[in-house]
Each structure stands twice: as C-alpha cells, then as structure tokens.
Amino acid sequence: MSSLYVRGARVLWRTIRLHRVPFSLSLLGTMVFAATSVLGTVALGDVTDRILIPALEEGEVDTGTVVAGVAVLVGLSIARTIGVVFRRFFAGMTAARMQRTLREELAERYVRMPLADHRRQSTGKLLSHADTDVERATEMLNPLPFSIGAIAFLVFSLLSLALVDVWMLLVGVVAFPIVALVNRVYVRNVVEPAARVQALTADVADIVHESYTGALVVKTLGREEAEVGRLRDTASSLEEARRRVGSLRARFEPTMQMIPNAGIVLLVAVGAWRIDAGAISTGELVQAVALFQLLAFPLAIIGWLLQQMASSVVAHDRLDDVLGATTDVDPLVGSLGLSTGPLAIEIEALRFGFDEGGEILHGVDLVVRPGEVLALVGSTGSGKSTLVQLVAGLELPTAGVVRLGGVPVPDLLPDDRASAVGLAFQVPFLFAASVRDNVVLGRSVDDAELGRVLAISNVDRFLDDLPDGLDTVVGERGVTLSGGQRQRVALARSLVGMPRVLLLDDATSAIDPTVETDILLRLRASLRATTLVVAQRRSTIALADRVAFLQDGRIVATGTHDELLATVPAYEALVRAYEREAVG
Amino acid sequence: MTASTFESAGAIAIVREGLRQSPRLRRGLGVTSTAALAAAVGRVSVPLLVQQIIDRGILADGGFDGGFVTVACAAAFLIVALTWLAHSTTLRRLVTASEAALTELRVRAFAHVHRLSVADHVERATGAMVTRVTSDVDALARFFEWGGLAWILNSGIIVLTLTVMLVYSWQLTVTVLVVFSVLPFLFRAIQRRQLDAHDRLRTDVADQGIAFSEELGGVATVRAHALNDRSRTRLLGAVREVESSRVRANRYMALSFPLSELVGTAALGAVVSVAAWRGESWGLQLGEVVAFLFLVNLLLNPIAELSEVLDQTQTAIAGWRKLLVLLATPIEIVEPDDGRPLPDGPLAVSCLGLGFRYRTGEQVLHDLDLDLGPGADVAVVGETGSGKSTFAKLLVRLADPTEGELRIGGELVSEVAPAERRRAVRMVPQDGFLFATTVRENIRYGRDGSTDADVEAAVDGLGLRWWVDRLPDGLDTELGEHGGRLSVGERQLVALLRAQLADPGLLILDEATSSVDPETERAIAAALAQLAVGRTTISIAHRLATAEQADVVLVFDQGRIVERGSHDELVAAGGVYADLHQSWLGAVGAE
Fold first, then answer.
1. B31–A contact, CB cutoff 8 A
2. For B428, left (φ over 0), alpha (ψ -120 to 50), or beta?
3. For residue A583, is pLDDT > 50?
4. What is the per-residue pLDDT across B241-258, written as a single tens digit (0 to 9) for each?
5. Which residue has the higher pLDDT, B152 or A247?
C-alpha cells in the first residue's frame, strides 16, 4: 500500500506548490512555535533554579527576579501563541485555497465536458464530487504544516538523545518504525471500507435527491414508506461501513496514543538498567525523559497526518476519475465563423446513436432553405428531438454532417453558433432567478429587444399576474410557473438576438392552443428565421411551408402538408389519429 | 418544543433536546463515560507515575532504588495497556451508538420531509432539504465520534488533574482556577462571532450547492445558448465565496486554541509568583511546587484540545439545530391511528360547504357542495387558478379542507385509513415522475408487493403490449435519471400502468397540458378508457374531448363551481363553459 503514501505525497506536494505563500507562512508559524516550546521548557527549569529554590529553601527572593522570570515565561508564551495563530490561520487558508483550486477544476471540467458525459453521470454524483469529496480530499492539509514543523522537533530531540546515550537514542528511534508500521496496517485495512463509506454517502445523497424531486409522485403513489425503506437500506449499509472504519479506528487511535507513553516508561526502564550498569548518570536520565516528552508530540502529529491521508487520497481518486477523464474537451467547440444573412440547414447522410443504446438516426438527408419554416413530424421515438439536438450542435454525429450556412456545426465557434441559433426544448430548464434573468441569461439585451421577444412569446400576457412582473423570482426550476408559462419564458430566451435559425423542439406543447397560434404567427411575421419545428398539433403543421416526415430514423417524405396527406398513408394515419383525438 | 423555539434555543438546549430525541445515543452512555473516564485516569496517571519514579526511585535522597523502579515501571506498563483497552472500548461504543442513532435520525428526517405537505415542498428548496439528511447528519457523526470523545476524555482529565492539584495545595489550585476562570469569558466573546461566521459559511456552502445543482441540471440549456462563460462565472463566484467565508470562520478557530495556551502560561506565572511570595509561610516544599507546575502543564493539553473541538462542536450543533427545526415542522396532514376502511368497487364523492385556504390566507375554494354517485365520469374544467387542481389535491389528501367536509365512499377523507386511501383513491399527476430504475420497477411502484405477473397483466389490461415491445429491453429497459429516456407522453403511460396496478375505486386524472405526439396521445386515450371502466373518474380536463365525453362537467371559476351539467346542456346554456368551448373549437379549427 506504499503507493497510497506516494499518491498522498504527490497531492501534498502539488498543494504546497500551488499555494506557496499561505503554506510558508503557516510553516513559519510552526517554526516559531517549535522554538518557543523548547525555550519554554528551558525557561521553566531556569525559573525553578532562580526563583523557587531561593524562595522556598532560603525564604528569600528578589521581587525583581520574580517579575523578570514571569515576564520571560509570559513573553515566550505570547511568541508561541502568535506562532500557533499563524500556523493555524494559514494552514486553514491553505486548505481553503486548495478546496477552491479543486472546485475550480471541477467547475471548469463540468463546463467543458461533453454533454454525453453529463448524461452518463447523475447530477447527484457530480454534486457530491464538488461537495464532500473536495472536503475530504483537503482534510489532511490542516495537520500538514504542523507535521512538517514537527520534523524540526524530531531532529532536535533525537540529536539530544544521542548525546545522552546510544541506548536512549535507540528507544527514541525505535518508536518511529512502530508508528510507521501501525499506520501501514491501519491504512491498508481502512482504504476499502473508507472508499465504501464515501461511495455509500454519495448513494444516500442520490436517493434523497431523487426522492425529494419526485415528492409529488411519491405522495400520490403512497410510496412514502417504500421510499423510507429504500433510504433505510442504504443508510444501514452506510452505518455498517462506518462502523467498520470505526472499529479499525478503535484499535488504531489508542495504539498511536499509547506509543509515546509506553516509550517513556520503556525509556525509564532502560535508563534504570543503564544507571545500574554505570553508563549514565541520574541527571542524564531525567534529561532524556524530558526530551522524549518533546518527541511524543511530533509522533502524534505525524500519525494524525498519515491517518487523514488515507481518506483524503481515496477522495482524490474519486475526483481524478472526473478530472482525468479521457475526453477532455467538448468536441463541439470549433473555430469557424458564420457569414451574415439567412442560413440554410443542410443535413447529409446523418447517423447517430447514444452509446448506451442502438442507432437512432439511420442516415437522414434534409435541407431547410433560408427563411423557410419546416415542420418535422414523426411518431414517438422516431428521432425528432435527437435530430434537433444535432442541428443545434449539442450532440456529435456518428456519421454524416449537419451544416449551417455551409459550415459543419461542430466546426462553428460556440458563440457564433449560439447567436445564430435559437433553441427551445419541450421541457425547459428555468433557473431560480427572475423572469427577466431567465430570458436575458446574462447577455446584453436592451429594453426594446426584451419587449420584442416578450411580445412574440406572449410572456407579456401573463406578467401582470405575477407579483413582481418581470422581476418575479421563479422557484427552483421555475416551479412557481405553469408548464405553458415556463415554455413561453424559454421561447423568449431563445429569441434574444434575432436568431437566424430557430429550432423548436415541441417547445409550445404545453401552451394553450390559442396562445400557441398567436405565437407562431408572430414568429413568422417578425423573425423570418430558418425554422425547424417539431410539430404535434395540426395547427402548428398548418403554419409550416413544408413538412418532413420522420419514420424510424429516416426522412421518408417531404412536401406540403396536403401533398403528404394525399401521398403518404402513414403520414395521413398519424395526423388523422391526432385529429380524431382532438375533436373527439 | 416548536420549530421557532429551536431557532432561538441555546447550544445546551439543543444538545439536551437532541439527546432526548435520540434514545440510542443515550443508551449505554454511562458505561461509555466510565470507560472514557478510565482512559482519562490512565492517561493522567502515566506521566504522574513517571514523575514519581524519577522523584523517589532515581533522585531520591537514598540514591538510585532499582527495585522500586522495576516495580513501578511494570505498574506503568500495565496502566498503559489498560488505558489502551479503555480508550478502545470507549471509541467502539461511541461509534456504534452514534452511528445507530444517526441512521435513525437520518431516516426520521427523510420520512418527515415526505410527510410535509406539498405546499412545504414548493416553499423549501430541494437542495436545502437534501442537505439536512446528508451533510448535517454527517457533521453530527463527525462530532460524536471525534469531538464527543474529546469532550468526555478531556473533561475527565481536567477534573482528575484538578483533584490531584488539590491534594498538593489548595491555595495554588485556587490560584490556577482564578486565572483559568478568564477562559470561559474569552471563549464566549469569540464564540458569538465564530457562530456568525459559521452560519455565513454554511449559507455560502448551500449557495454553492445550489449553483452546481442548477448549472449541472440545466446543462443542455447552458450549451444551447453557449452560456458556458456565464455558467463558469457563477460557479467560480460561488466557490470563491465559500473560500473567503471559510478563511473568515477559520480566523476564530485559529484564535481559540492559542488563547488557552496563553492563559495556561499566565497560570504558570501566577503559581510561580504566589509560591515565591507565600509558599514558605504555607509550608510548601520545593518538590511539591515543581510537581504542581508539572500538573498545570498537564492541564494545558486537554483545555487546548477542547478548544480545538469547539469549532467542530459549533458546526455540529448548527446542523443539529436545523435538523430539530425540520423535525419540529408540523405535519399538517395527520393520519388517523385507526382509520376507517373504504368499500370495494367504484366510490361516491360528496362534499358539503367545502373550502380551502392557504396558510398565506389566500382562499382558493369556497363553499363547494357536490354529490357524485359511484361510477360517475366527471370532467372538471376551468382557468388556471380556478381551484380545480386544489380540488384534486383535497381528494387525494395532499391537503386537508379548511372548511366543510369531504367524503369518499361515504367516509370523511381525514378519517380513512391511509393504506385504504392509497389503495382506493389514486391520482395520475401531470408529470409522471420516474425513478432511475427499470420500466418494470417504475410500474411496480403502483402497488406494493405486486408481482411480475401483475405488471404484465396491467400492460395487457391497458392494451400497451405494443408499446412495451418497442422499448429496447421491454419492461427491463433501464431509465436514466428522472426517467430521461422516455418522452412526456410515455411517462404518462407508465403513470397509467401504475394506476391500473393499484385498481382504485376513485381515479383522479390531472390531464397533462402538454400535447403529446398523436400516436402516444391515442395510446393514452385508449388506456384511459380501459382504466376508467368500473371506477369513479374525475378528470381535471384540458382537452375538449375529455369534457365532451364526460357524464358531468363541473366548471370552476374563482374557487366556486359556477356551472354543472352535461357538455351539451352547458354549451346550450351559453355560460362560461360555452365560451371555453368556443375557444377550444377555435384552436382546433386553426388547422
């Protein structure tokens, strides 16, 4: 398990390198502390000789000497205190800085990592990396400067012991292999249960997160008890794992605490034998005991560091799994710009499949001419949403190409792509911010532009019903708005900046049909964007210039609604089915 | 105690109440404390014994006493071994007790959140509630297993050391106590600020969690609008806030530990001065004073260690407080202990003077009178905010009426046994939330203890075999987080299958406002028709077809039923419903 120490040392070294200043200051504090501690021991002996002995045995002591003696004691102590404050404050700062470093790396990674990677990992897991894993990973940083400072103690004590007697030195030296051995045994045993504790902690968070998100369904299904049972199972496994770590600790910690005490008794015993043999004087033994007491301290601190190291390294491994992933950068970040003017969407022999499932699109060919409104119609699972996401550049095709204005989408500059393309999803994601912020999303939008997009998307029609109008803060994920209102806000957001390509993935499905019609008419009138709209309602289809019919991952027909109705029986069946449902 | 009293309660009160609520934490605490005390005695007595060996065996007037040293060393080794045993026992017992208690607490807090009303869920951020059950409990665990031990052990050592001090000289002990009595005041002065700094830190950590949760949850939106920079800025901002408030909180932690050191040295100085001044007149021997100084030094470590865990203690108590506040949040819906059963078959629904008012005071339902026979097929229509959804919530007891009474199958809803209600009254919500497991498991959630055969029967019963066959692995298809692999319409199919499995006598359908692709739409309609057979059905309708086909249409407006009757009657009457019908026709006619 030495690799664990090596990995631990590597992590420590990286921290020191990155956060040199607070670490050095902390180390300085430790040095001051070490020096004043040693001097304090000497001073106390001196005070005994110069003040207590004259006072108690001769009954006579100079007040000035008492004052001076106490002043030295207190002065040293103040210096020591300042050292400790320095050490602790800056050690804490080093840990806080390293947490920031790790979280910044995670944030950077999350921002850049491909959408496919996001899909593969649950939000709960990614969250727990940024939260508990980072905390754990930096836990060993607090005792770090102290441990390094403790080495100074160590050298001093061992040298002094060596001056007394070789055998005495041996007792001191032998304590180290024992500490190292005990640590090794502990670490070897604790790594696995500690990793299990961390994994189960993440599982508990996952369950709680999922269960609370679906709270309404849990209630209506009467599954509260079952959910509680589910949590109880995982929490019990966690309890079990933590008890295993606890029982290892119950053997390790007392042993570590025992070593200095046992060492001192051993020292006295060996010392007695050496005195008997005439090798050392009684005074020398007393001195050796005092020195060993100084030694106990660094022993404890270094032991503490090594103990923390195990769980910190485990947490680091979990972080490295994310940070060191092979696909480093979102492949959809190109460098080409777009020409001005209307843009065509050209899709050629496009294939796509999610890696966990089969192929969804089996070679799609489709052209949407500049300024044209094309309705994409197809049954569930035909691949409509996937096609839209490929056009938007959110997924990378497995084969074939999608071009906007002649440029393959993955080669586009993200900013160019985003300003040219407006995309609205069926299930919009709203931030827990004001309606205005949700529309603007930090882009520079003037009032006229804002008014325009709010009017097209019909958001302005419900603003008056909201307590603070445009500044009303919507709840988490927009829960305080209705589904249709959320869709309207998301639509407004996608219209900011006059996109030249508009992709509506069933983005008006929850909107009242009359409002939807108004929105679509306004869109046509004001935008003249090349529009690809996934349509469910006949009213939507009716507004399109042309219709593309997608079946089983292929475009099987394109043409006007009436043409398709007349020539494609499957299309007719699908559309008629809806009609029957709508009219009853 | 109520939630608000906990918010202002002191640390001691929180610990007392916390212990009261966790009997497993209290159980065996006597034995654990005794073992801890034994460990403390052991830890103090080894240095004392070494001191004695040096004084009497090595530096004694009679010269080096080999026999005494041997015996005393043997005794010291024995004490070391016994101390190990006591310490180990204490730790093991503490971990066992606290882990068991915390699992209980975790599960209780989790269950409590599920028992809160839906209104509470909307008001509280999911992230914050997750924190209660996860990191707050973890902070408590850390405290019990590290800080808790430190408290018991170190208080023991302090008491023992003071006792030995008293044996040497009560005057010097009083001197030490007087000097140390400054400490509590110093700590209290720091504690206030430390607590504030910690609150700030916790808030910032929570905000950081929200930021990560939103930016990760909305990552598709972020990418679609190329908002990566905005996302990054927000995350980095939150991360930096946490860093700076951590450094601020750490300032007080850095101070609290050395303070005790400083006071300790002042005590040493005081002892030296007092001994030099009055020692002789009190008849103190040099050896006694030196031993006393040694004891004062021994006292420093435990005090320093206690100040060390003070910080951890603060965090834990802050978390404990939040947990207690959560657990004290009143459950508005109290299930009857011995509830009444519901009859089998379709259920009648009636209400008399039914009203509902939110805690905020907003009245959303007024004086509803209604009598629906078993097997009725009812559509409820009305504008958003007309009270129709609230009415549905009352039916499944997601909330209780504030006025009047509501009966299902002749029984007051609040008196029906919860298991009966869940069996016989079922709501299909708009968004069929799915769990990250297989389709089969998700359907099975419809009824506890249902078998594979039941699930298969439900699929066939609603005529959805073709849909299941189209899924990549049929019923065993794994769904992603929140059922991400199914469309909105397909999620509704799962919700319907759940209801079919439950076989309720009263079915409440909160029709989805989203339109679904025609094929799924048709599947849903067919499944619904099957599902409704032999049950009382109340649909919160958004579709013309649903209202047209219903036996009775109830028109809600501003919390009242303003019209009732069949579709044709209401259209002929030319009221609110007729207008609504007109706008529906208009929308369909736009094709």
1. no
2. beta
3. no
4. 999 999 998 888 788 777
5. A247
User: How far off is chain B from A304, nearest CA to CA, in Å?
Assistant: 13
- Which among B289, B229, B398 has a CA at the least distance from the CA of A224? B398
* Residue A445 at interface with chain B, using a CB cutoff of 8 Å: no
Q: Is A272 on the interface with B (CB under 8 A)?
A: yes
Per-residue DSSP letter, B280: T
Q: Which of A44, A122, A257 sits opposite B481 (nearest CB)?
A: A122
**Residue A584 pLDDT level (bands cut at 50, 70, 90):** very low
Say yes or no for a CB contact (<8 Å) between A231 and B106: yes
Using the predicted structure, report yes or no on whether residue B296 has a pLDDT greater than 60. Answer: yes
Residues of A in contact with B420 (CB under 8 A): none
> Which amino acid is it at B113?
V
Q: Is A298 exposed, middle or buried (0-12, 13-18, 19+ CB in 10 A)?
A: buried
* Residue A428 CB partners (closer than 8 Å, separation 6+): A478, A486, A487, A489, A490, A507, B221
Query: b vs e for B184-205, b when ≥16 Cβ sit within 10 Å of the residue's Cβ?
Result: eebbeebbeebbebbebbbebb
Is ipTM strictly over 0.85?
no
Is A69 in CB contact (< 8 Å) with chain B? yes
Q: Which of B313, B238, B32 is nearest to A103 (CA)?
A: B238
Find chain B residues with C-beta within 8 A of A269's C-beta: 69-70, 73
Quote the pLDDT of residue A40: 78
Residue B406, strand partner residues: B351
3-state secondary structure of B59: coil
Cα–Cα distances in angstroms (integers) from residue B348 to residues B373, B377, B408, B424, in the given order: 5, 11, 6, 12
Do the Cβ atoms of A146 and A152 come closer than 8 Å?
Answer: no
Across-strand partners of B171? none
Counting one residue from chain A and one from chain B, the pairs whose CB atoms sit within 8 A come to: 469
What residues of A are in contact with residue B106 (Cβ under 8 Å)? 204, 231, 235
Q: Is the pLDDT of residue B327 over 50?
A: yes
What pLDDT digit, counting tens, does each position of B244-294 carry?
Answer: 999 998 888 788 777 877 888 888 888 888 888 887 788 777 777 878 888
A421-424/A501-505 β-pairing: parallel
CB spacing of B280 vs A578 below 8 angstroms: no
